[in-house]
Specification:
By secondary structure, this protein is an alpha+beta fold. It is built from four helices and six strands, in the order H-E-E-E-E-H-E-E-H-H. A six-stranded antiparallel β-sheet has the order 1-2-3-4-6-5. Helix 1 crosses helix 3. The longest helix has 15 residues. It is globular and about 35 Å long. 23% of the residues are buried.
């Protein structure tokens, strides 16, 4: 299966309180007004929220799938994903849901326990 921009749109918009909005000329997907995913310029990649401390490990383990745009993503909790490298719709759903959880407000997370909570942040 080749994952497409339409698959991203369908799965992202199925998540609670999610809306699509153009920003920088590209489709972005927001939960409660916060961006959790965005399609790339040519619809072959997407950006998702990812803790900065987790990015290097993901990129090292699957460089054909995950990357950052040097100089652009360096200081942001953002990771790029090559859609064609995703295994199937289940993996796309997992990536988008994880990103959604990172952006969703606690009240929304509590209202949807089936989607799980993001990992606890030490602090």
């Amino acid at each position: 299966m080749t994952t497409t921009a339409d698959d991203v749109r369908t799965i992202a918009l199925a998540l609670p309180d999610t809306a699509e909005r153009l920003a920088w000329g590209q489709p972005t997907f927001r939960v409660a007004g916060k961006i959790f995913a965005a399609l790339g310029d040519d619809d072959t990649t997407m950006g998702v929220k990812c803790p900065v401390e987790d990015r290097a490990e993901l990129i090292a383990s699957e460089p054909e799938k995950f990357f950052v745009r040097k100089g652009h993503d360096d200081n942001y909790a953002w990771l790029r994903v090559r859609l064609a490298a995703l295994e199937d719709a289940a993996e796309l759903t997992a990536v988008l849901t994880d990103s959604w959880r990172q952006a969703a407000p606690r009240k929304l997370l509590d209202a949807h326990p089936e989607l799980g909570l993001p990992p606890a942040v030490d602090g």
